[in-house]
Design goal:
Blueprint: H1 2-22, E1 27-28, H2 31-48, H3 50-56, H4 58-63, H5 68-83, E2 87-88, H6 92-112
Antiparallel strand pairs: 1-2
Helix pairs in contact: 1-2, 1-6, 2-5, 5-6
Protein backbone atom coordinates (compact mmCIF):
# COMPACT_ATOMS: atom_id res chain seq x y z
CA UNK A 1 0.00 0.00 0.00
CA UNK A 2 2.78 2.41 0.91
CA UNK A 3 4.73 1.50 -2.23
CA UNK A 4 1.67 2.21 -4.38
CA UNK A 5 1.21 5.59 -2.69
CA UNK A 6 4.86 6.52 -3.25
CA UNK A 7 4.68 5.43 -6.88
CA UNK A 8 1.61 7.57 -7.52
CA UNK A 9 3.30 10.49 -5.76
CA UNK A 10 6.36 10.09 -8.00
CA UNK A 11 4.16 9.87 -11.11
CA UNK A 12 2.38 13.10 -10.20
CA UNK A 13 5.72 14.79 -9.49
CA UNK A 14 7.09 13.73 -12.87
CA UNK A 15 3.94 14.96 -14.63
CA UNK A 16 4.14 18.33 -12.89
CA UNK A 17 7.84 18.67 -13.74
CA UNK A 18 7.21 17.85 -17.40
CA UNK A 19 4.29 20.31 -17.53
CA UNK A 20 6.55 23.00 -16.07
CA UNK A 21 9.23 22.15 -18.61
CA UNK A 22 6.88 22.11 -21.62
CA UNK A 23 4.58 25.03 -20.80
CA UNK A 24 6.17 28.45 -20.35
CA UNK A 25 3.27 29.68 -18.20
CA UNK A 26 3.87 27.03 -15.51
CA UNK A 27 6.66 27.98 -13.14
CA UNK A 28 8.02 25.69 -10.43
CA UNK A 29 10.44 27.07 -7.87
CA UNK A 30 12.49 25.06 -5.42
CA UNK A 31 13.96 22.44 -7.75
CA UNK A 32 13.46 18.77 -6.94
CA UNK A 33 12.02 19.30 -3.47
CA UNK A 34 9.70 21.99 -4.75
CA UNK A 35 8.21 19.58 -7.29
CA UNK A 36 7.87 16.88 -4.61
CA UNK A 37 6.09 19.33 -2.30
CA UNK A 38 3.77 20.50 -5.07
CA UNK A 39 2.93 16.88 -5.91
CA UNK A 40 2.08 16.25 -2.26
CA UNK A 41 -0.15 19.32 -2.06
CA UNK A 42 -1.78 18.49 -5.41
CA UNK A 43 -2.49 14.95 -4.23
CA UNK A 44 -4.07 16.20 -1.01
CA UNK A 45 -6.16 18.82 -2.80
CA UNK A 46 -7.23 16.20 -5.33
CA UNK A 47 -8.19 13.76 -2.58
CA UNK A 48 -9.99 16.22 -0.30
CA UNK A 49 -11.57 18.82 -2.58
CA UNK A 50 -11.64 16.89 -5.87
CA UNK A 51 -14.58 14.57 -5.11
CA UNK A 52 -16.71 17.49 -3.93
CA UNK A 53 -16.00 19.53 -7.08
CA UNK A 54 -16.57 16.51 -9.32
CA UNK A 55 -19.90 15.77 -7.65
CA UNK A 56 -21.06 19.38 -7.89
CA UNK A 57 -20.02 19.63 -11.54
CA UNK A 58 -21.45 16.26 -12.57
CA UNK A 59 -24.37 17.72 -14.58
CA UNK A 60 -22.02 19.97 -16.58
CA UNK A 61 -19.56 17.13 -17.03
CA UNK A 62 -22.30 14.91 -18.43
CA UNK A 63 -23.61 17.71 -20.64
CA UNK A 64 -20.16 18.30 -22.15
CA UNK A 65 -19.36 14.58 -22.43
CA UNK A 66 -16.59 14.81 -19.83
CA UNK A 67 -14.80 17.89 -21.13
CA UNK A 68 -15.79 19.90 -18.07
CA UNK A 69 -13.59 17.51 -16.10
CA UNK A 70 -10.62 19.43 -17.50
CA UNK A 71 -11.99 22.61 -15.98
CA UNK A 72 -12.35 20.85 -12.63
CA UNK A 73 -8.76 19.56 -12.86
CA UNK A 74 -7.64 23.08 -13.75
CA UNK A 75 -9.47 24.46 -10.72
CA UNK A 76 -7.73 21.89 -8.51
CA UNK A 77 -4.38 22.89 -9.99
CA UNK A 78 -5.19 26.57 -9.41
CA UNK A 79 -6.07 25.79 -5.78
CA UNK A 80 -2.73 23.99 -5.45
CA UNK A 81 -0.93 27.02 -6.92
CA UNK A 82 -2.74 29.24 -4.43
CA UNK A 83 -1.68 27.10 -1.50
CA UNK A 84 1.91 26.55 -2.60
CA UNK A 85 4.54 29.25 -2.93
CA UNK A 86 6.55 27.07 -5.33
CA UNK A 87 3.97 26.82 -8.12
CA UNK A 88 2.91 29.66 -10.39
CA UNK A 89 0.48 29.12 -13.24
CA UNK A 90 -0.78 31.74 -15.63
CA UNK A 91 -4.37 32.53 -16.49
CA UNK A 92 -7.38 30.35 -17.13
CA UNK A 93 -6.30 28.75 -20.39
CA UNK A 94 -2.79 27.98 -19.21
CA UNK A 95 -4.17 26.32 -16.06
CA UNK A 96 -6.51 24.17 -18.15
CA UNK A 97 -3.69 23.30 -20.57
CA UNK A 98 -1.39 22.42 -17.66
CA UNK A 99 -4.13 20.27 -16.15
CA UNK A 100 -4.53 18.50 -19.51
CA UNK A 101 -0.79 17.81 -19.75
CA UNK A 102 -0.64 16.56 -16.14
CA UNK A 103 -3.72 14.36 -16.63
CA UNK A 104 -2.38 12.82 -19.83
CA UNK A 105 1.07 12.17 -18.41
CA UNK A 106 -0.32 10.75 -15.18
CA UNK A 107 -2.56 8.39 -17.12
CA UNK A 108 0.23 7.24 -19.43
CA UNK A 109 2.79 6.78 -16.65
CA UNK A 110 0.32 4.97 -14.39
CA UNK A 111 -0.45 2.56 -17.22
CA UNK A 112 3.26 1.88 -17.81
CA UNK A 113 4.13 1.22 -14.16
CA UNK A 114 3.08 -2.25 -13.01
CA UNK A 115 0.95 -2.59 -9.89
CA UNK A 116 3.30 -3.72 -7.08
CA UNK A 117 0.47 -5.33 -5.12
CA UNK A 118 -0.15 -8.01 -7.65
Amino acid sequence: MLILLLLRWAIIAIAIAVAAWVLPSVDVDGGFWGVIGIALIFGLVNALIGPILRLLSLPLTMLTFGLFGLIVNGALLAITAGISDNLDVGGFFSVVLAALVISLLTTILAALVPDPTG
